[in-house]
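Re: beginner question about structure tokens

> Can someone show what the tokenized structure looks like for a real chain? I only ever see the sequence side.

Sure, here's an example I had lying around. Input first:
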Amino acid sequence: MVAQVTSSLVKCLLIILGLISVIVNIVLICLNSSRLPKCHFQVQDSIAANHTDHSMVFADLTPLEYLAVRDYMWNQKDLKISHSATAKPSENMLFLIDLLLPKKQDALNYLDQHGPKPQRKATVVVFFGQSSYLKEYEVGPLDGRLRHRDVTKERYNMENLPFTARTVTIGEYVELFIFLESQVFQKLEKELRESFGYIPGKRNLNPFEGMPRGLKAGDRKTWISFFRDESGIYIHPVGFEVLINHESKKSSDWSVLNLLYNGHYFRTIESFKKAYETGKVTKIVYKEIPNYASLKPRKKPTGFSPQQSYLQGKRFSVKNNQVIYMDWTFAFGLSSLTGMRVFDVRFRGERIAYEISVQEAMSVYGSNTPGMVLTKFLDSSIGIGRFAHELVRGVDCPHVATYVDVYRYIDTNVTLRVHNAICVFEHDVGRPLRRHFSDFFHNSYGGMPNSALYIRTITAIGNYDYIWDFIFYQSGSVEARVHATGYISSSYKIDGSLRYGHQVAQNVLGNIHTHFVNFKVDLDILGVSNNFLTKDMEFEEVSLPWTTERKVKVPYLVQNQTRTEKEAALRHGNKTPRYLHVASNQKNRWGHERSYRLQLISFAGDHLPESEPEEKSMSWARYKVAITKHKDNELTSSSLYSQNYMWDPVVDFSKYIEDNESIENQDLVAWVTAGFLHIPHAEDIPNTVTVGNGGGVLLRPHNYFDEDPSIHSPDGVYFMPGSELDCEYNKMACLEKDLCSPTLEPYNYNGFEGVMKFEG
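And the corresponding structure tokens:
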């Protein structure tokens, strides 16, 4: 009897357990039915691509190459180069090591004619503080026994470059900060505490310098404005500025030449102290304020923004400094001075451009305070690429982008590595590249998503962040584009300030300013024998053939060829043809010159009048587009020395045009200037947004092909009534079959490791 009861209990227990198991499995199936399987590929997976080593002739220097050049120069005893990272102005300093690009013809012989590989060499800049001049050297070959050669005369037609043309180094900044502490802060501690809350070592005042540093060649007199010690200091001006003379190599000889306090000027610290004590100047009274410049979100983030993934893996490949994407191949690099650049840009194997590169970024400010009234920033003089920092996954670039580290040697004594400073990704821009819905007669739909390849870096140069994109479209177009964000520059609001901008916070003026960016576009359309053509429209009056008494105005095509450099220098403010072409002598199937069009994207303000003595250093900005004959000694539109030697620049772009050479059937270079006028407004607080703040140049095929090349893209979609769900020409109809959850790399960020430090 007991055995029977036991057996029955066991059976019941097994049944119950079985039911529980079924229920649990049903629940688990329900819970997981909406979850996508993990994609079988890893993030780093890319297409199989036939990379070559030819791109390496344009590759940035490697850490070992930087080290070899540095040690070689240090070992030249006659140069007496300091090994210190904070060398004083009176010492000799190895300021810059950068790639020396090969001569174009040598590179083309190697790339196209199986010629010898050009030797890799470096450009080296030395500041000779002991002798008060600057020099440039060529050092190489980097894969052999190193030699150096003084190329200053060859490049600039002068034996030595002027010493005051040099960039302010970290070592000089250390000296400046020590000078400010001893000669300004300590002497004015009471006044600064009462006016600005200054407490030594606890609540400081942060300096921001105006440029250029003076009014004539040889000057090194800098107006320094002071800001509250808050994040986003650039929009916390306090109303106090000083003019420092630091022309001497010895900081003991430096002096304070002028002061500005609450709109009033004083020749000496003593005269200011006296006016302050006797009440002859309206005092600024310090008040605690919330930090309206903080970028910490006002509300805690509650979720994720849309993120992209590659359902079938990446359709591009990056190896060394070469990118292959669909029909595109190109080499890339990041110059410490000028920033992003690409070389040997090919579509379907045909070279479209030898070089597309950033040259300069410039801003001119308006103000009635000294720190801004003279300010004209030329960013390549401190280094555009120098300030490329690590990119933030999911914000600066898609999380699944391919990231590339870069190395640089500028104003340092060691090679600096910047993790993830460049990103490469394919991106659907969110609107079709082309489409048509046929409503009449033959009903059908044909279209294609606009998926393009981006290569990007972002440079944080002081207050402004510039997002640099080179974009490669499946239609054969290339775009070089910049967007600006970051903080506006500001000044303390005084009487008359509103003539130069808008008030954006308490006692804060957002100063009006221009942004100009110059690109070098060396197009090689089916070779190096090209012409510059223009096209536009005009109206003409014609009689209607079927009723001759009636006349109508109709547009017609106007075509011209520009034959000299001066004719092809198209100035801002002048009406210029709307279609600008670099064309080959070859014709397409329909008998038209195969060409690429330069389409400018710009909302630029007015250029600085040429009567201003500083204008020669930025003469490239006179022109929307300027076409010149290629020359190896006309490599850049600006230079490292332009900012601090504006009045007699060693590179004056206008001289490239003065010789007025023929541009018929020549190797042509287009110098393109884009930009925007920025009148700061309340919505620039805390940060300027990228929307509407940018410019660039679009290079579009114009009769280069016989039809739109994107018609051959695997991304095309086509269907007719009855075939809407057919996957053969409409992969979107079967998208659900390929859905999966991407495998993401762990999030990490090390970008604060490489920031500038001013410790002596």
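Each token stands for a local structural state, so reading them left to right follows the chain. The CA atoms of residues 240 and 261 lie 5 Å apart.
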